[in-house]
Amino acid sequence: MIILLRFHLERADVTLKNQNESGYLLLEAVFSITLLFSILFTFIPMNYQILKEYKDLEIKREVALELSNQLKLSSDNTTIRKNIITKDSYEITYTFNQQNNILEGCATWIDTKEIIQDICFYYPNQ
């Protein structure tokens, strides 16, 4: 009888242990899913924002290069010019103006955040 009683107690401990492990596994799964969603909801918008900023910088570099090239080519021209060029679905307006002995070249466009951006370069005119 003592042996049977002892076996019965050990059996109850095993059952309690399995129930506790089941709760622990559920808690671990909830924590893992929460961590996964936290990471996803943080990094996906951050990655999207970084890509938008990268696109804005890429357009700004291309506009600055094109403006510099056009400014050097039109240094002998003294008239006011206005060019509109579409590049990668961005409408870029180039404006050239002569002031005294300085040629001013400006470019204006709307970036991915719907903000009007402009950049101006100045070139001495001989």
Automatic annotation (TrEMBL):
Q: What is this protein called?
A: Competence protein ComGE
| TM spans (from-to) | 24-44
Which keywords accompany this UniProt record? Membrane, Transmembrane, Transmembrane helix
